[in-house]
Amino acid sequence: MQAIRVADGIHWVGAVDWNLRDFHGFETPNGSTYNAYLVVGEDKVALVDTVKTQFVPELLERVTEVLPPGSIDYIVVNHVEPDHNSGLREVMHAMPQAEVVASAGGVKGIEGYHGADVKVRPVGADDTIDLGGKTLKFVPMPMVHWPDSMFTYCPEVGTLMPNDAFGQHLASSERFADEVGLDFAIEELAVYYANILTPVATAVGKAIGKVADAGWVCDVIAPSHGVVWRGEAISAAMGAYDRFIAGETTNKIVIAYSTMWGSTDVLAREIADGATEAGSEVMLFDLNTAQFGHITRHLMDARALLVGSPTLHRGMLHRTAALLQYVWGIRPKGKIGGAFGSLGWSGGSTKQITDKLTETGFEMPVEPLTCQYKPDADDIAQARVWGARFAELVREPAER
Ligand code: FEO
Question: Is the backbone of residue 373 left (phi > 0), alpha (psi -120 to 50) or beta?
């Protein structure tokens, strides 16, 4: 794959990680990319972002298609997380005259990862770099997605390079959202946001506000993961972010559960039927097979999460505990929860589920649903009523 022009004088020179299947615990079934951009001015040239160490040769090959790496004048580090920055030293070695620039937080992060001998110039909102006919502007964007994060903007070609923001974990031979299909790209944007940016939604909202306040017109949004947004895709991506940040939901209910001998599975399906018949959209996941990232993507626009586990050794099964810990980290806001599960003689799983969901910030408006050993006709009827009760709770007030 060659270097690809994303705007006049801006070339994608990043790397495609086709085989990535796990990004710090978030499943990435479609791989990812580490995007880096070469911004070519009349006098100077800047590389915006680098890549993971093992992909540095791929990056340098693409840079070489445009210019000799030794002629690069600046390396802009928008974010120090290793997916973008672990290859910095190797890139610096190939670009010995390049000055490294980063936010003040980035300076500290680069020191932490690479050592104090790496010289880095701090830049902020008052700084610009003149490349000759092209300018780089910067705005620190703390917590989008780490304290060091920064957006870089080139006003002459209306190109925003916001690193993780507007990214998707998507490996493809195409470089633009309109090439892979806009609906698919927006769905991948949602999956990424749900799993990476939900805990920092306030910071993302502030970042979008700062871009607007700065008067930065965006003809191209070139993130550091996945495909690039241009043309009509820009307003689609912006509109999607508005909805994500606002926490827009539907009447969807997510049901996620583990099962030992099938009893909690029966309860889950009856709960789902009860909720569906009462008018809710339902997504049901057996935790033996479901991907957590898929569950949390659906949780993003759901109003309720119902979590099930039988009791084993007086507590919940470990897959249920793992999901709850994952959701605790994401901290979705404004949602209700429920706990259900079968038991043999001691019970205990639904209390643990209730405690963890409460700690995560879920409102728990309904008593847990349990049954002993195997659901009988009464248990099945109760499960349907329990599901229907949640369907009532997640309905818009105007629909009740
Ligand atoms: Fe793509 Fe926060 O790193």
Answer: left
Please list, in sequence order, all residues whose beta carbon lies within 8 angstroms of the beta carbon of residue 100, skipping any fewer than 6 positions away. 74, 75, 77, 88, 92, 110, 118, 119, 120, 121
Note whether residue 236 is domain-resident. yes
Tens digit of each residue's pLDDT (9 = 90 or more) over 93-148: 999 999 999 999 999 999 999 999 999 999 999 999 999 999 999 999 999 999 99
For the residues 267-289, what does the mean pLDDT come to?
98
Count of structural domains within the chain: 2
* Least confident window among 168-177, 206-215, 353-362: 206-215
Same domain, 238 and 274: no
Q: Which member of 11, 79, 84, 169 is catalytic?
A: 79
Active site residue 130: no
Q: With respect to residue 399, please indicate whether it lies within any of the assigned structural domains.
A: no
Model pLDDT, residue 398: 64
Q: How confident is the model at residue 397 (pLDDT cuts 50, 70, 90)?
A: low
Instruction: Report yes or no on 397 lying in a domain.
Output: no
Q: Is this model's pTM higher than 0.90 or not?
A: yes
Cα 83 to ligand 1 centre (Å): 6
58 is catalytic: no
- What percent of the chain is predicted at pLDDT more than 90? 98
Give the DSSP letter string of 100-142. EEE-HHHHHHHHHHH-TTS-EEE--TT-EEE-SS-EEEEEE-T
Q: Domain boundary residue among 231, 246, 261?
A: 246
Specify the 3-state DSSP secondary structure of 369. Answer: strand
- Among the three residues 246, 261, 276, which one is the final residue of a domain in this structure? 246
Query: Does 213 fall in a domain?
Result: yes
- Are both 239 and 258 inside the same structural domain? no
Ligand 1 binding pocket includes 148 (Cβ within 6 Å): no
Same domain, 304 and 211: no
Q: What integer pLDDT is reported at residue 396 of this predicted model?
A: 74
Q: Determine the structural domain holding residue 339 and report its residue range.
A: 252-392
* CB 52 near ligand 1, within 6 Å: no
Say if residue 20 is in the same domain as residue 52: yes
Determine which residue's CA is closest to atom 1 belonging to ligand 1.
164
